[in-house]
Amino acid sequence: MGASQGRITVPSLGRASAKGRCAGSRRSVSRGLTGPPCRTNSCTTSYQYTTGTTPKRPEETHAWLQAVLADPETHMWAIYLADDPSVIGALEFGMPTPGLGSIHYALGRSHWGAGLMTEAVDAVCRWATNTLPSLREITTSVAAANVRSARVLEKCGFQRVGSAFEVWERHASPIELHVYRREA
Ligand SMILES: CC(C)(COP(=O)(O)OP(=O)(O)OC[C@H]1O[C@@H](n2cnc3c(N)ncnc32)[C@H](O)[C@@H]1OP(=O)(O)O)[C@@H](O)C(=O)NCCC(=O)NCCS
Predict the structure, then answer these.
(1) What architecture is the 8-134 domain classified under in CATH?
(2) Which one, 67, 119, 121, 160, has least CB within 10 Å?
(3) Is the CB–ligand 1 distance for residue 25 below 6 Å?
């Protein structure tokens, strides 16, 4: 894959790079694990609406990455701006149940609202459709209050198919989730 002329690049990480790479709608470049490490200040993300926690030290990030990359059912991508070597976000795609994919993502706060994650999520979904023959559908859950994320999914062709409540460690009360689905 050639050098990017577009707005973002979405190189796959680790195992995923052996299986295929996903290209943003404006073309992408592959860096894989040879890409520069994530700088904490450019990767700071609001985890208010996720079950994730913000790593405080590089070792925590490395441990998390190692665990994710060791899982054969999980594919990871980093997001870069085309003209900047700093990681600004990430996406994770898994297929824990045969035929049923799931997607999770986060973007550095200073990059919100520019349509970047819509572009990245759509690219990963298209990669999954084209690369995983057994995939039938992709589902994900979004905190009901996370209107930005819901909008990203809707713009990527997901439809809301239900609701659920889940207990999250850092919240006193159960969180209402909206469940979204997109056919592969
Ligand atoms: C959710 C997240 C990935 C969105 O990324 P993003 O690049 O800002 O998303 P986009 O710019 O592609 O799209 C955001 C949409 O939400 C809309 N939006 C933003 N604020 C909004 C608000 N308060 N109410 C309603 N819509 C809103 C935007 O207008 C845009 O829609 P539009 O293109 O129709 O105008 C980002 O906010 C993030 O990383 N959040 C923290 C982690 C997280 O919540 N991950 C998802 C867990 S399910």
Answers:
(1) 3-Layer(aba) Sandwich (3.40)
(2) 67
(3) no
Question: How many angstroms separate the CA atoms of 60 and 48, rounded?
Answer: 19
Q: For each of the chain's 184 residues, which pLDDT tens digit applies?
A: 223 446 888 877 754 443 333 334 333 322 332 333 333 333 344 567 877 777 788 888 888 888 888 888 889 898 999 888 888 988 999 998 999 999 999 998 899 999 999 999 999 999 999 999 999 999 999 999 999 999 999 999 999 999 999 998 878 899 999 999 999 9
Q: Whose CA is nearest to atom 31 of ligand 1?
A: 151
* Ligand 1 pocket, residue 158 CB under 6 Å: no
The SS3 assignment for 81 reads strand
Structure tokens at 64: 């998390």
Q: Which residue minimizes the CA distance to atom 8 of ligand 1?
A: 112
Backbone φ and ψ for 139, nearest 5 degrees, come out as: -125, 155
Q: Which amino acid is at 154?
A: E
What are the sequence ranges of the domains in the chain?
A: 8-134
